Amino acid sequence: MKKAQIYIWLGALAVGVCIGLLKIESVNTIMSFIATIYTRLFRLLAVPTIVLAVITTLASLGGSKEMGRMFRTALTYTLLTTVAAAAVALVYYIVIAPGNLPASALTAEESVGDKIDVSYTDHILSVIPDNVVKPLLDGNVLALLLMCFAVGIAISRMPDSRPKEVIVNGLNGLQEILFTLIRWLIAILPIGIVAFAAQLIAEVGAGVMFDSLGKYVAVIIAGNCTQFFIILPLFLLCSGINPIKTLNGMMPAVLMALFTKSSAATLPVTMQSAEDRVGVNPKVSRFVLPICTTINMNGCAAFILVTSLFVMQNNGMAITLPTMLLWLLISVISAVGNAGVPMGCYFLTLSLMSGIGANVSLMGIILPIYTIIDMVETAENVWSDSCVCTITNRRLSNRPSHTSA
After folding, report:
1. Counting beta carbons within 10 angstroms of the beta carbon of residue 207, is it exposed (0 to 12), middle (13 to 18) or buried (19 or more)?
2. What are the tens digits of pLDDT across the range 121-152?
3. Short-list 116, 106, 337, CA closest to 212
4. Helices and strands, number each (H, E), in the chain
5. What are the residues whose beta carbons fall under 8 Å from the beta carbon of 306, sequence distance 6 or more?
6. Per residue in 332-369, pLDDT tens?
């Protein structure tokens, strides 16, 4: 089913390209209308989904005091690898320097205006909420993330009781409703891909577009590959673990992640590979891997950072070094709060850009190629989960990994 879905999406992309090449004005108008509808639907579901995902993730991490040391170790390496992934992507963004798309590629649905041209003081103050409802209505995701972190941690610190159980179950129920809506939207996504691709081809000259988008994709793929084949193996080597043997042992999980595009769906295979093929203590793998599947999103951090900078750049915002470092931090925090939402990286970036008033029509142009990016990112995420689990096992478990050097 997953492989068939990929073929359907690629087929929709091809159909959209053919429609765009026809350059029929009435058809182009219809495609633009459909693309706008999909953008609005994504934005409708994005913010509440992220809010619930972050709160439920943090709320679920309470308790397990005897696992405190194990959790701290896993969390430390999760943050280190996620920061490294974002930093590597940032370096590639600076070096490759993708250019701007033609102005005709961006629709006028959103007004950038003066929202982006604000001081850092105003930007920081806008993140500090003074009203519970206003950030949700305004789509101010940074303020929402701050509130969500506070609420999630507060729930995790509540004593185990009936009220806590009711709160957690209620939040999980709301999250499932949103997941169902997202699945419905993804099920009809080929129609949207046709519209986005047709709009893209019809409105933009291919030479400039593919040069700019090609460099953007090159930044993301190069960052993911560097993280996968160089940075993560270095983390393993620094802990005295053989990265080649570890990757060989985890290959079934990595390959499954590549084709399913879901770390959560791959989790059973990841745990089995870690325990049976790598020699990780089950007590470690069955605690660390579910946590990592939820919060360890190396590929997501790189995507959020690169895509945010690319969108802001195309909206006329100066991309200075302080801006890059600020968004590196934001991308790491957002990725940790992704919580396994389907197409979560895309939703997070879309919401973050909406929160600063950027024209998000560029996200529709990126959507047709996102399925390929998502495959690579998910494989990297599962490989990173495996590395963090193996390192945690080596440092905390009495039984060393079979892959130790």
Report:
1. exposed
2. 555 666 677 777 777 776 666 677 778 878 88
3. 106
4. 17, 0
5. 89, 90, 92, 93, 216, 219, 220, 223
6. 988 886 655 556 688 778 878 877 777 777 787 787 77
Q: What angle do CA 268, 396, 157 make, to 5 degrees?
A: 75
Alpha helices in 262-404 (DSSP H): 263-272, 282-295, 298-314, 321-336, 344-355, 361-396
Residue partners of 393: CB distance under 8 A and separation at least 6: 280, 281, 284, 285, 288, 399, 400, 401
Beta bridge partners of 404: 241
Q: Helix 361-396 to helix 344-355 angle, to the nearest 10 degrees?
A: 120
pLDDT band at 300 (very low <50, low <70, confident <90, very high): very high
Give CA–CA dist 51/234, Å, rounded.
34
Site of tokens 């870690």: 274
- Tell whether the torsion through CA atoms of 179, 185, 188 and 190 is positive or negative: negative
| Contact between residue 360 and residue 350 where contact means Cβ atoms under 8 Å apart | yes
In 261-297, which residue ranges form alpha helices assigned H by DSSP? Answer: 263-272, 282-295
